[in-house]
């Protein structure tokens, strides 16, 4: 059977993948005063080790749960593919009680009758329940289904006059061959409402009907009960094909006795042919990484072994910050064409060679260069981190808003200029933030920009409130009640995956492709034509120049010129980890500038020039050092020729990611004169922390618009595509 687009089933089913749906029956109750809150973890065995595939959602107070979160796994006929399922009772704050586990193989599930197996859950020798696994073949299709569902005249299942039915609905996929019902979606409940209008349904066609628009879909209305014993109200069946091209479709709802129980209303159904992540990559979209690291006092001194920033100079073991940077950064840099990363720190007093201030900064360049905060590849990231962590005074509190605003400005510039770039802000932090309201306001404002925010929680702190930011259901609202237009935040606690960097990277980045595609659909941008390279006329040197390759291509019989860097020895400087060892830099030919107290957090006001007599002195006279150490460590050698830096940076010629015209535009893309530009160079964003609340006439506390304050954009590299 062909689908609505004329694609044959044989083509769509050529990819061998299975979707596994999980249910449990008769679970042992692990709680005293309530029922268990179960969830299931699925593992697959690779190289004789169990590797986590994913987790279902947590269902409260239910010993017979049907999980809507399913698992999609590659299927190989010639392999057994061992699987293990563990069922736990969630106790909150990362704690759980083990209920039981069961093992099987994917081959056993695929070969079972109706592709359904029932496995005993065991805790030691004790049976603690039954795990039901049902498989369905995945048909590869990228279409998305959007529609509004509401109901009318629902029956009241309550007997108290002040409380009526609190309805929510479930969607089940009905298999034609076996008549099995597979739960694919569950809505939010609406309290005491017999005419509910639920949140707009936004679901992949593969998830809802496996790409078969004639497949029967059952919708069931349930009355929500806090005990978990929800009461079935009524149901009916429909198909996507039945609703296609129509509006305000009403269908009668029937209860278990086939009696009329109200109507269900389908409105504004849209079938969107969704491009894939690879479609955008092949048309030239690149991902640029922006990284930010938490240096607040709660991390403890880097000289203390218990510190999350501890630098192991003896055995060169990486701390949690380094592990997370390496695991995530290596993957994202594959999609960054120039491999240059703006790297920031926050929550400390920097004592860097070019940036030394007694003011606690909540957004500063980690390499100490405000004109160019970028570092090159993973080596540059690790070197900048290793240098900065020894030359900052940890302070606090923890603020995300300045970092997010700075990243939003970079993304806004690229959006206004029409560049085909998507940004990922990668934040590493060890605890709860203290500007949650301002951060939420900025995230909501950033949902219309080409940016995603990835947060990794390091350490053993309670990250419960971080789940507020990672809102996959679109319920995040700012101070004015405005919702995010899409999902753009992903939070992952590092401790859950610290023993498995591959799984950490998977959980951190798994939502990013969909976030990029959702943004492109939001602004109405379809993938462009694929970049075609004629290999018959392929010239490696021309390709290297056009695409900004960092290494020169060596022709035959041509010797490569390797610059000789003199080895300068510094006393008491521990070496970096072996995989990031680099030649030490030349002696500095400029002074360490110490700035007076700033009027704003970042960046500071312009500083006067220092006498030239202070040049060529290293270390500088009277340096301000980190209280816990006796020496200023040398920064990494990013440029062999260093120039005296003025802070804040003066207007310079842009030679990197942004074109020349950016020098005459502000961050909103509005053209200004040279005189206005010179005046704006002296104006910098004023971050007021702790944030000051302002109340308008309506009693709403607004968030300051980060785009109303012009600022010269950072010095960034050439766009290799000339966008």
TrEMBL record:
InterPro entries: C2_dom, C2B_Copine, Copine, Copine_C, VWF_A. Residues 551-647, 686-723 are annotated as: Disordered. The keyword Transmembrane does not apply. GO terms for biological process: cellular response to calcium ion. CDD domains: C2A_Copine, C2B_Copine. GO terms for cellular component: plasma membrane. This is C2 domain-containing protein.
